[in-house]
Amino acid sequence: MHALISGGEQFHGFEGLSLAVLILAGGAAILWAMIFAWRWFATFPYQPAPGPTTSDLGGEPPAIVNLLVHRCALTRAAIPATVLDLAARGALAVEQYGRQVVVRVREHRIQGMALAAYEGHLLDHIRRHATGGSAPIEALGFDSPDEANRFWDRFRKAVVAEARQRRLVRNRWAPRDWTILGGFLAAALGLAAFALGLAHFAEENTGSSDDWGRWDWFWVAGISWAVIMGGLGALRDLRDTPTGRAAAARWLGVRTYLRQAEAFEDAPPPP
Fold it and tell me: For 27, 72, 113, 207, which has the most beta carbons within 10 A of its beta carbon?
């Protein structure tokens, strides 16, 4: 570690070819950062402007709508929204007895019903917690944070898969982005490793098998490339499609309609 900090006994500064290569590496790194910033903002899933005020709900289920109107980032409000949607379609019954709300699975109504994978996943969770086919709403929680996180991870992936199938979302980074960003990053890291090797930075010659060789920097460059590229895939990895953007705009128009509709204020509770 001391050798890495001090530069090693073989290191006498960057000069000549090593300095030139190091400057090229810095230039490639700056160019990569500029390209990344450009593509980051060009592909960011911005929320569209609300469409015309309308009561036309369209065909997208609540969980898909949640994903679209939150810039391709699903929120946990999609879970209770899906419960209510399943109840509206007859797969569940949500009943109130005094102050207690009970959820009941209508198995006879579910048979033959077209269910998305995330809806089936949610129904399976309700079945596991329902005694005799029904359970108080409080009993549908999770036994541990780990269980909740596993459920949410599976639920989210299934919602995204459904949205992809409907061609409402897509991968944020296109193959061209991976090629350009990966290529420039490899060039910057490779040149930096070459410059460090030329300058004998941190090189050791003690005769031990653990000695740091002058070209071991290419291993560091390769690992760094894999980590950075892997990180890119985890940074808001979705964006909307033109169809998804149009659907989000329409649903934002529906939200405006519901906020302006005075009839909902005086509407009686559902039976």
Answer: 72
Give the closest residue to 87 by CA, choosing from 59, 54, 131, 122: 122
DSSP 56: -
The span from the CA of 192 to the CA of 88, in Å, is 60
Q: Are strands 134-136 and 92-97 parallel, antiparallel or unpaired?
A: unpaired
Question: Are 230 and 29 spatial neighbours (Cβ–Cβ below 8 Å)?
Answer: no
Give me the long-range contacts of 210-216 (CB less than 8 A, separation at least 24).
Answer: 212/3, 212/4, 212/8, 214/10
Tally Cβ neighbours within 10 Å of residue 21. Answer: 21
Q: Which long-range contacts (CB under 8 A, 24 or more apart) does 96-102 make?
A: 100/136, 101/136, 101/137, 102/134, 102/135, 102/136, 102/137
Please write the tens of the pLDDT for every residue from 4-29: 444 555 676 788 898 999 999 999 99
Domain limits of the chain? Answer: 12-60+170-262, 62-165
